[in-house]
Design brief:
With 138 residues, the chain is an alpha+beta fold. It contains five helices and six strands, in the order αααβαββββαβ. Helix 1 (4-17) crosses helix 2 (27-39). It is globular and about 35 Å long. The N and C termini lie close together (11 Å).
Length: 138
């Protein structure tokens, strides 16, 4: 599924750049900064919900589609996210509750990192309309 060293490097860079708990509302900026620093590729722009399309344009990640967000419970989504390898990028679609969506990088230890570091929660199902997963392959 993933290139372990490449993904671990991304997760390590993410943890060093955003070690503090909490979010500041700039998840896409945080992920863009992390990926640019870890991979040397240019920063991107957009919101969390735009990252599915951003990631589809990258050759160093592959989209993972072996799940069905709509049929998963909140707990199942949480457990699924905990299994994703370090460096995996996850993008959530926008809803009326959150018009910007969300994007995060998995650290492989049960945390998500964007513009802060937090344990993987159960709120994703109620806050977002879809989930796209991209694993590192470089």
């Amino acid at each position: 599924m993933a290139s372990d060293d490449y993904g671990q490097n991304i997760a390590n860079v993410a943890a060093s750049m955003y070690p503090n708990r909490g979010f500041g509302g700039y998840c896409a900026t945080g992920v863009s900064n992390i990926l640019a620093a870890a991979t040397g590729k240019p920063k991107t722009s957009g919101n969390g919900c735009d990252y599915a399309n951003v990631m589809r344009g990258r050759s160093d990640f592959a989209e993972y589609t072996d799940f069905d967000f709509n049929s998963m419970s909140a707990g199942q989504i949480q457990e699924f996210l905990k299994t994703l390898p370090a460096g995996t990028v996850v993008s959530f679609g926008a809803t009326a509750k959150n018009q910007y969506g969300h994007v995060m990088i998995m650290d492989g230890k049960g945390n998500e990192i964007s513009d802060g570091t937090n344990p993987i929660g159960t709120y994703y199902k109620s806050w977002y309309s879809s989930m796209s997963v991209f694993t590192p392959v470089a």
